[in-house]
Design brief:
By secondary structure, the chain is α+β, with helices and mostly antiparallel strands. The protein has helices at residues 19-25, 71-81, 125-131, 133-139; strands at 7-12, 32-45, 51-70, 85-95, 101-112, 118-122. It starts with 6 loop residues before the first strand and ends in a 6-residue tail after the last helix.
Length: 145
């Protein structure tokens, strides 16, 4: 079944990859699948626990893809990400259970805008899980957009 024109796939690469954060922001129930985005790199953001996606033709980001996200939840995600991010459409590849790359689909990506706040270190999802996830939602509460 293909999603309707009023829904979009959303590629997440940071805090929203974690079900506890995703479900605090959106109201709908969406299937999540592993995916990879070519041509971008995930960096740390100075003074924050969330990451930045930045264009880099030689890099790739592993993340989570949520399909069929409706317009109301896209508005919630836009509000959650705020004005530091711009939502753009990019091609991503699904990752099969055996780890091989599969189908390519278009998805929404939140691109980080303030280049002066990017830390040259890669953002580490495992470190976020152990060091910051438990306090992240309290610090960045979801919007009721």
């Amino acid at each position: 079944m293909s999603p309707s024109e009023s829904t979009r796939a959303v590629f997440t690469y940071g805090s929203l990859m974690f079900p506890s954060v995703w479900s605090a922001v959106v109201r709908g129930s969406y299937p999540g699948r592993r995916a990879v985005l070519q041509g971008f790199r995930r960096y740390a953001v100075r003074g924050e626990t969330y990451p930045a996606a930045v264009r880099d033709p030689d890099a790739r980001i592993a993340g989570q893809l949520y399909a069929g996200v409706d317009a109301d939840d896209l508005a919630r995600l836009d509000a959650f990400e705020g004005n530091e991010y711009q939502r753009i459409t990019v091609p991503v590849r699904l990752i099969a259970a055996d780890g091989r790359q599969g189908e390519e689909i278009e998805a929404e990506l939140y691109l980080f805008l303030p280049a002066d706040r990017i830390d040259p270190r890669d953002w580490d999802p495992d470190r976020f899980r152990t060091d910051a996830l438990s306090t992240f939602i309290a610090r960045y509460p979801p919007s009721d957009a």
